[in-house]
Batch of 2 targets.
Target 1
Amino acid sequence: MDIIKAHRKIVILTFPQESVRKPVVCDLARRFDLTFNILKAQVTPRREGYMTLELTGTEDNYAKGIAHLKEHGIKITPAAQKITKDDESCVQCGLCTAICPTDSMVMDTETRTVLFDPERCTACGMCTRVCPVRAIFVEVENGHW
Ligand code: SF4
Ligand code: SF4
C-alpha cells in the first residue's frame, strides 16, 4: 500500500540570496519523484527566502532530494509537528486506528469512539491521509514567521 511506504516530512528551507530564484524545489518532483506541498513561503527584504514544505516520497528519494537542496546551499530544518483531532467532525469510522503505527488512535470498544493519545503520537501524518472527513490536522510548531 503506497500510503504505508510513503515517507512524509515537513521541513523549513532557508534559501541563500543566490538560490532564491533557482527552480530547486521543482527539481524535487522532476528529478526525485517527490510530491511537495508549499505550506508557507516568504522572501525577506534582504532577498533571503524561507519556505515550509511538506514532502512525500520514498525514503531513498527523500534523502536524495534533501541532499540536492543542500548542494544549493539551502539550509534544512525539520519542522516540529503536532497532530490535533477535531472530535466534533470525527465520525468514529476507525480508519485512523487501523493505520496508526504507534496506537495513538484507539477505538474505545465500550463507547465506540476513537481516542487520541498525543503522548504516543510521532506526528507521522499517516492518519491525516485516510480520514474521510479531514478531522485530523498537522500543525507546524517552529515556523520562522
Ligand atoms: S500522526 Fe500520530 S496518530 Fe496519526 S498515524 Fe501517525 S502516530 Fe498515529
Ligand atoms: S479516520 Fe477520521 S473520522 Fe475516522 S475515526 Fe479517525 S479521526 Fe475519526
Note: The radius of gyration is 17 Å.
Target 2
Amino acid sequence: MHKLTYCLLAILLLSACKTVQDVALTQPILTDKDLTKKTVDVNTIKGHIYYLASDEMAGRDTPSPELNIAGRYLATSLMRYGVKPVEGFDDYFQQVPMKKITPAQAGTISFGAEKLEIGKDFLCLKGGNLDTEAEVVFLERGTAEDFDKVEVAGKIVVVVAGLEGQDNPQQWFFAGADKLKIAKAKGAKGLIELYSSVQLPWNYLVNFLNQPQTIVDDSEVEAFPHIWVNASNVAAITQLKGGNGLTAQVKIDGIKEEILKTYNVVGMVEGTDPVLKDEYIIYSAHYDHVGIGRADERGDTIYNGARDNAVGSVTVLSAAENLAKYPTKRSAIFVFFTGEEKGLLGSAYYANHPAIPLEKVVYCFNSDNGGYNDTSRASIIGLTRTGAQPLIEQACTAFGLKAMEDAAPEQGLFDRSDNVNFAKKGVPAPTFSLGFTSFDEEITKYYHQPGDEPQTLDYVYLTKFFRSYVYACRLIGNTDGSVFWNEGDKYYEAGKALYNKE
Ligand SMILES: [Zn+2]
C-alpha cells in the first residue's frame, strides 16, 4: 500500500472516531423516564378513551358485538405498535368459552299431598331441565359419614343446608358443593337442601339467585338437580325429613343455555436481556363494562365505562406502544380481559390457560378503575405488598403524583379485581388505579353510572397517571432487584410454591 494512502486512512479513522465521540457527547443515553415521555402523550390517550368509551360501544357488555369490536380495536392497536402475537393466539385473541344460563321458568316438587312451586318454595342452584321420580332419603346434614350410613343410589337425597356450626349462607354454598359431589358419586338422582336463614331471608335469596347467570364453561349442563327448598313450609318439611318410602316427583322446565363468544386479547414483546427475557411481566386490564341499563336522570342508558375500564385498557395500550418501541430487559405480555364485570371471568380463564406458563411470569401489573377524587395521587391496590413498591413510587413521583396504597381497604378491592386471579396462583399482582381517598360521592357519581363518559375526565391528570404507569412498567421490566411478595403476605406462600422458592 502506498504511504500516502496510509496517512489518508489514518486521518479518516481519526475523524471517524471523533464523530462517534461527538455524537455520544451530544446525545446522552435516554433514561427510562425519557423513553416514557417519547410515546405517552395526551392526544393518543384521548383518542383511545373516546373510542373505547363511546356510545357506539354500548357499554361493552359481556357478551356483545360491541365488546368484540372493542377487542378488535385493542388487537389491531397491538399489531400497529409491533407487539407480537403469542404462539397459539395468532390473531391476538384467546377465546373464553362462556355461557349464559337462564334459570328455570317452571318447576314443581310433588310428594304425598304436597306440591312445591319453583321460586316460592324452592330454587334450582344447578342442573338442567328434567322430569324424574324417585324415593326420598333424609341424611341429616349430609356429611361424608351420613352418606356412608344409607344406600342412596337411585334416590333423591334430602339434607339440611350447611354444616354444624355454620350460620352463613355463603358457607352453605361451599358445603353444598361437597355434598353434591358425594351424592353424584354415590349414584343419587338429586340433592335437596332445606334452607332457613335469618341473615338472608328466602325472598332475598330468590331475587339474588333467580336471574340469568354468565359463567365460564363450555361443558354440557348436567341434569343432576341441586335444589334449595324453603324450610318454612313445616308440613312439607316434616314429610321430607321423615319420609322413608316417600316418593317425590321433580319437574324442572325452561332452563336455557346460550354459548357465548368472547375473547381476551393477548400480545407480547420479547425482552432484550439474554437471561432476563425468560422472565415475563403481565400488563393487564379488563376492557368490558356493564352494557346498557337503567336510565339516569338525563335519560341516558349507556354505561360508557370511561373510568371503568377504558382508562385501565389504555394504560396497558400505552405500555404496549412504549415497550414495543423500547423493549425492557424482561419480556412483556399484554392481556385485556373480557367478562370482569360478570365475576372476573376472563382473568380467571387466562390464569388457568396462560399463554406463557405462570411460573415464568414474575409480576402482573394490573390496571382497573372505579373513579378518582384526588388528582395529586395514583392509588395502587397492593402497593405495599411487593418488592416493586420503591419502583412504582419512583415512577409516580417523577411525573408529579404520589403513589398511595389502597385508601378504602373496607371495600376489599385487592380481592375484587382481575389481579386476584394471579395473586391466588402466587404471582405478585397489584392494581394501578386513579387516585382516590375514600369511596365518596365523587366516586359513586360515576362508578357504574351512565355518566362515566370520556368528556368528564381530566386529561392533564390522566397524562401524568399514564406516564407514571408506563414508567413503572419500564422500571419493573428492567430492575435487577426482586419484585416478589413481601414476607408474610396472604399470597406469599402461594408465590413460593409457584416459583419453587426456598
Ligand atoms: Zn373495573
Note: The first helix runs from residue 3 to 26.
